Hints:
The complex is a heterodimer.
Chain A: H1 12-28, H2 35-61, E1 66-73, E2 76-82, H3 84-107, H4 114-132, H5 137-155, H6 161-192, H7 205-210, H8 212-229, H9 238-241, H10 247-274, H11 276-282, H12 284-304, H13 309-329, H14 333-364, H15 375-378, H16 380-394, H17 400-414, H18 418-444, H19 464-482, H20 490-500
Antiparallel strand pairs in A: 1-2
Chain B: E1 6-8, H1 11-29, H2 37-43, H3 49-59, H4 62-65, E2 68-74, E3 81-85, H5 87-110, H6 117-136, H7 140-158, H8 164-195, H9 203-215, H10 220-237, H11 245-252, H12 255-276, H13 284-306, H14 311-335, H15 340-370, H16 380-385, H17 389-406, H18 412-425, H19 429-472, H20 476-483, H21 491-505, H22 507-510, H23 527-549, H24 551-557, H25 568-577, H26 584-601, H27 603-613, H28 618-640
Parallel strand pairs in B: 1-2
Antiparallel strand pairs in B: 2-3
Amino acid sequence: MIIDPLIEWEALPLAVVLSSFVPGIAIMFLREDQQLLRNTLNLVGAVAKVLFVAFMLQGVALGGTYAWSLEVLPGLALTLEADALALLFVTLSAVLWLVTTLYAIGYLKDSPNRTRFFGFFSLCVTAATGLAMAGDLFTFVLFYEALTWTTYPLVVHNGTPEAVKAGRTYLVYTLGAGTILVVGAVLFQVTTGTVDFVPGGIVDPTAAAAQPVLYTTIFLFLLVGMGVKSAIFPIHGWLPTAMVAPAPVSALLHAVAVVKAGAFGVIRLIHSLFGIGVSWDLGVTTVVVVAAAFTIIYASVRALAQDDLKRILAFSTVSQLSYISLGVALLDPMAHVGGLVHLVHQGLMKITLFFCAGLLAQTLGVKTVSSMGGVARRMPLTMAAFTLGALGMIGLPPVAGFISKWYLGLGGLGADAPWILGVLLASSLLNAAYFLPVIRTAYFDERNADWRLPESLKGLEADWRLIVPTVITAALSLGVGLLAASDWSPLGWALLIVERGDL
Amino acid sequence: MGGMDVATSSAPALGLLIAAWGVPMALSLLWCSRFTRGVGLALAPWGAVPALALAIWALTRTELAEGEVLFADLPFLFTGVHLSLDLTGAIFLLFTSILWVAGGAFAARYHADDERRHPFFVLFVLTMAGNLGLVVAGDLLAFYLFFALMTFAAYGLVAHDRSDAALRAGRIYIILAILGELALLTGLISLGVAADGVPLFGSQMEGVWEILHEGHPTALPVLATGTLLALGFGVKAGLVPLHLWLPLAHPVAPTAASALLSGAMIKAGLLGWIRVLPAETSLPLLAGGFLVLGVFGAFYGVVCGVAQDDPKTVLAYSSVSQMGYMAMGTGLLLHDPELAPLALAAIGVYALHHGLAKGALFLSVGVADKVPGGPDPHRTEETASGPDRRGTWILTATSLPALALAGLPLTTGSLAKNTLKDGLAELGGTAYSILDPLLLVAAFGTTLLLARFLSTLARRRREALANQHSKSLAPAGKVVAANGGRAQGTHGLVLPWILLVGIGTTGVVWIPTLIPSPEAVALPAALDGWLVGLLPVLLGALVGWGLSVRPTVLGSLRTIRIPAGDALIPVEHGLGRLTLPSQEALVTRAEGWAARKMAQLSPVIRMADRWARGDIRSMEGVFLGSLVLGLALALAGLLLVP
């Protein structure tokens, strides 16, 4: 078999990180009116990242891994390692970064401070991909903190008092979590003498059994550190508040990159550091499972009471994120598959929903459900995409969400925890209760708000740079479910991770 | 069910198994563009033709009656989709596709001037794809996939009118549908765990039930799984007390949609029962439940239905009642593996008969509404006052499927009922000695209900004519708009309806040929058999006629009115009083307070605040951030170095 030299290039992980870092820094030094150059840098970086990732996917599918390392301090190295698990997250980030960049260019076409925005936007993605490929806890923490700092300017981008307040809440939560995470990481290093991520865990079971209190404490420190970004109750409060950010930020960062960083951290914590066996023996997974189950229900109930579309989506994100933690914390391979695959599925569906919310706000000025009456006649493509995403969230086949729910359900029963099934069903029911009325309002109600009707029916319903990404992600949400049986689907990849023991 | 599954796969089978649902699915894509949606509108009514071709082609193959299963595999799709068609499936596919073609043709004319015809037909073809797809689905998840597609797309058909009543019906429909879907999903997951994958229908399915049965010392999991699946499909099949959506949805849905809901779609629940529930693992409790709820439903539908004034509501309750019979058949199927072939034949014939008859009856309501009175609708004075000859014809033709449903000898109804009765007789013992007289009374009730239908239909016809009359007295331009426009005349309505009546009425000849043992569905041989069939019908018709000519009798009988949706009304009333406690304000205040307090404590956050407001110039913020980050990392590094 002829293997492409690119597939064997060891520094591919670094290339992936740099493909957004370099444009990000370069953009910072551009003038506000150098639009063409800025957009070109952005898009070239995004396309390059997708290509690099595609090469790595092939290489890893053939059985290889990519590792790149740089010693920063004696005994402490910056390690990037792309195994199958890392690639699950990296691929998601890379593909969605590309479509969101296009969306953001269209969304912010008349807004100020775009240089700052796109600069930090690229740095954010750098942090997210770096964290995904972190080979040890040190590298992970580094990128995790960087993610906080690069996201903050995006949250407060509008500069309104409301945005400043939201930014403050954001920092309170994430800085607090960051500090706790660093303490946890230091404790881990001091106790175990290593911080490497190893499939199956690196903690010695006998040592953990000898000092259960110490290990439980370390686990909980790290869990709180990760839990804030993955918005587990009661440390989820920043996410709905952060919805004042522009739609592309909410879409990519608060539905995918930032929150998934937290969820991914929980996966690394349970599977690559402690190992699922040790975690179960310590009883700490029970904490994760119960907290996640509660979050799933609690956030859905909160979503019911909202009228602001983005806040509904935010609470829905809080709820759906906990599916991931729930899945990976259960002692059943099917549940792991469900949790892992939901990392991708939730991202695709939720980014679609946020894109739609942005489209409605930008094109018609519609931001609340109560003013959505009849918008489907004005924006059929947008609402078709929204409907797909929402039905997927409820878990209807063949949209992606069903696949996640099916495997989580299998895992719940397989792990002898039938109550998990009850949580999943209640969540579906609540999802239906807050998403279906939105769809009904948009399609079946009379127009009830003062948005302009199109002057003519020629052309698209909105800026093509907003429509195209939305249609792509909606198609992906459907496609990954419809072709779930394929090897290259997220499900196929999640099965590969679990079957290979890469978790 | 069980036994030998002889799976055969051939090119025409593969093509038709995919085209059956793929063609309507592809048609829905035509609405993606404004330029092709006109084509979609023209083709949508005929989307079920490939499915009809498949049904006819399959049923003409003798191998099918010998246990052959047509089979196609789409391993790349979804979780790996299997398509298959056995004899039962082919019978379901036959009436389902006939109804979709007839309903489509009817709807094409009915909605020709409807400003919402585009949304209607998109959802029409999607519902069609789901309904036809589930009939040819060969595994658990493929069935669920198509079932969900049909259920959710059909919401748009129910709520098409956008009136308050339609939206309410839609709401009740979707709530029950979701609860049903969730019950199904739970049951399916339970089977999925036992199967360690997705089982195919037939012997694999039976094997999974065996595993589930043997894997647990108590019967609880197997019973819970069976009950959840029975209830999940029961919502669709109108199993009392899950029938509540039926009498609300049918009157408000457009006529063609009602015909399809009652004729074809509720049978999807029935097919689900047959496909998924175990015939070989004995679940006596579940079988008993089906028998009891079936008998109860057969009566309950009659009692509620007789009290209705809208002919479509009467028909909806008639469907509830008739689905009771099919639930009895399912109970028989689950009761004893020995009786399974007989039970399957009975269910197949019953579903086929009921689907065709009920579809024709629903369409007759639309025909009675729209066909103008008299030879010339524009010569208004005479026609409005003169005898309504067309109306008489319509009522006469309508009474054919009505009598069939009532079970008059020499109709498809008597075939279906006799087959079912023969099966139930095999139960023997006390069960049958109770069932036998009950069935006689139920037959009387059914006739009474259909007499009620015909009298409400006649009244609706009179009202429709009066309406047309007053319309024609309006300015001439409006009359042209109402009667002219895109489609002249009402042949487009009458033709599909008459065709359906004809296919149903002649069914008594061709239906027995579809069954491997035609003697099982033969007409009763002895005279007393004929009498037993005839008597309740005559009695019911007599009483029904008496009540309709003396409405005061009925009026005094109905001192307690039963609203459409019966038991739902007190439930809705009760739920209306419940309000969710508002936690919103409290939570927001608590979060705000915590954020403010923490912000006061931290200089870093205050600095960030100023940067965000624009008090500090932009790059400084970045340096500030990097500084803090660098410090944190240096600290961490120092600690980490041993």
